[in-house]
Design brief:
heterodimer; A: alpha/beta; Amidase signature (AS) enzymes; about 40% helix; B: mainly alpha; two-stranded antiparallel ribbon; 2 strands; about 5% strand
Chain lengths: ~475, ~80
């Protein structure tokens, strides 16, 4: 059996039984990257030396009987998570050459658990996009069809896991940037509750929406990785003091559970019949596993996109003010004028989508427009959150498609920002309301993967994961890497 | 200007056209009556977070300056921002 086709849990068993060493596993993955990544282009940088030294340490822990379930497991990290000494650029030219002086908490917790880092994955610049085509380096390709996008913004992480170039990967999700690429690449991806995972060491896009989460090849693996990252961190005051119970009753099934089906999510603009069909079949399978489907309504769905595209750009325009050519990254040094230093650095460093959003956000926050745009959007955010609160009074979790479409062709939406924004229409509500959401593969349409999204109330990752796990078991689905 | 983006010639027309399209789509929010709806300040319930005010290790000056494009005597170097008087 080719180990790059196994799940994390299966590999952990092999490592613990000493049938394979962590070093051998790391080398197998580095070889897989070397042979496959010239086509997929999931990685921006491969950290071979780090991988081999971490694998050696993992082998010592395994030998000493001090290993945990993640010891020696190879991981890929999205280019927005700081790792000490490893170039981290947020997919942007403005951070070219930046080597963080510290490692962020989520990554550090995985390192402490014995994980082996293979490299840094491609993403849309500052995580702004739904196709990874906004990376200032190169586009990543979908391992299922190299002419298609992998989704985004965490497209490199999704593609790496889908192509067997990593056992799991980390991404970030601000409006769907984990769940949507997971759906398009046929892997599991989860955005936790806002505050579940520390954002310390994450290069911020929109701070009230961003969360870090895993990409895996099984729901069980997803729960395992999330469990290792979650929990309060004194270095992020928005990380919550909550019991870490994300794996609770994972395999208990969904008999008697009520699953809400929001009609608005099945009628959104541009939803493909093939996607709808695959999701409806998945719903029937969940029903046969014992769940009761109930109709729910999310009446403000139509306003979510507009509210999101005020709030997220507003927060990004503020967060990205720090990239000024003074502290890190590229710099257009100017002896005379500090404004020219800022202007010239940002002109050279920021790509089109980032500039568009900084302009939009600056406008929405500017004096005279604040009430009409930003304040209005924050009020609509309240309405959207109330929609979910009301729906969760009738059901335990909400099920829908993750993305209205399967993976689209490279270049299909790059000239039309609004069409690209519509990719997130089914996922961004979860960010606006702070909910946990998981995407699990639920069949194919036209030879490309479709994702089933499960949203749960805040802090109920356990419920979202249990539903996804029940679907995985009922469908008998096994995620194997796409062969490119 | 406010965002210090440093636009190129021609950029203004390009972005003006795209942004007016996006703002047009966003304007649908105005149709909602939100007069009595409070804005979302925090999406999850949070309590005031306080910690003990105790010294703890931080990055060294050298580490902080390691990525600086220009530095002098342990400082970030920038063009002067005030006229000499």
């Amino acid at each position: 059996m080719d180990p790059t086709r196994l799940t994390l849990s299966e590999l952990a068993t092999l490592l613990h039984d000493r049938e394979m060493s962590a070093s051998e596993l790391a080398v197998l993955h580095l070889n897989r990257i070397e042979s496959t990544d010239p086509d997929v282009k999931a990685y921006l940088r491969v950290t071979e030396d780090l991988a081999l030294s971490q694998a050696e340490a993992a082998d010592r822990a395994l030998k000493a009987g001090e290993a945990g379930p993640l010891t020696g497991i190879p991981m890929a990290v999205k280019d927005v998570l700081c790792v000490k000494g490893v170039e981290t650029t947020a997919g942007s030219q403005i951070l070219a050459g930046f080597r963080p002086p510290y490692t962020g908490t989520a990554v550090q917790r995985l390192f402490d658990a014995g994980v082996v880092m293979l490299g840094v994955t491609n993403c849309d610049e500052f995580a702004m996009g739904s196709s990874t085509e906004n990376s200032s380096y190169f586009p990543t390709r979908n391992p299922w069809n190299l002419d298609r996008v992998p989704g985004g913004s965490s497209g490199g992480s999704a593609a790496a896991v889908a192509a067997g170039e990593a056992v799991f990967a980390l991404g970030t999700d601000t409006g769907g940037s984990i769940r949507q690429p997971a759906a398009l690449c046929g892997v599991v991806g989860m955005k936790p509750t806002y505050g579940r995972v520390s954002r310390y060491g994450l290069i911020a896009f929109a701070s009230s929406l961003d969360q870090i989460g895993p990409f895996t090849r099984s729901v069980e693996d997803c729960a395992l990785v999330l469990d290792a990252m979650a929990g309060h961190d004194p270095l992020d005051s928005t990380s919550a003091r909550k019991p870490n119970d994300v794996r609770k009753r994972l395999n208990d099934g969904i008999d008697g559970m009520k699953l809400g089906v929001p009609k608005e999510y099945f009628e959104v603009e541009g939803i493909e019949p093939g996607v709808k069909h695959a999701v409806e079949q998945a719903l029937r399978m969940l029903e046969s596993a014992g769940a009761k489907l109930v109709d729910v309504t999310l009446p403000h769905t139509d306003y979510g996109l507009a509210a999101y595209y005020i709030i997220a750009p507003a927060e990004c325009s503020s967060n990205l003010a720090r990239f000024d050519g003074v502290k890190y990254g590229i710099s257009e040094q100017d002896e005379q004028n500090v404004t020219d230093l800022y202007m010239n650095t940002r002109r050279r460093g920021f790509g089109t989508e980032v500039r568009r959003r900084v302009m939009l956000g600056t406008y929405a926050l500017s004096s005279g427009y604040y009430d009409a745009y930003y304040l209005k959007a924050q009020k609509v955010r309240t309405l959207i959150k109330r929609d979910f609160d009301a729906a969760f009074e009738q059901c335990d979790a909400i099920v829908s498609a993750t993305s209205p479409t399967v993976a689209f062709a490279l270049g299909a939406k790059t000239q039309d920002p609004l069409a690209m924004y519509l990719c997130d229409v089914l996922t961004l509500g979860g960010n606006l309301a702070g909910l946990p959401g998981v995407s699990v593969p639920c069949g194919m349409s036209g030879g490309l993967p479709v994702g089933l999204q499960v949203l749960a109330p805040q802090w109920r990752e356990d419920v979202a994961l249990r539903v996804a796990r029940a679907y995985e078991l009922a469908s008998g689905m096994r995620i194997e890497p796409a062969l490119v | 200007m406010l965002a210090r983006l440093g636009l190129e010639p021609g950029d203004e027309e390009f972005y003006a056209e795209q942004l007016s399209g996006i703002l047009g789509a966003i304007d649908r929010l105005q149709a909602l009556d939100t007069e009595h709806i409070p804005p979302t300040a925090q999406v999850v319930e949070v309590e005031a977070v306080l910690r003990e005010d105790e010294p703890r290790p931080s990055l060294t000056q050298e580490e902080v300056l390691a990525n600086a494009p220009a530095k002098v005597d342990g400082f970030f170097r920038v063009p002067s921002i005030q006229e000499e008087t």
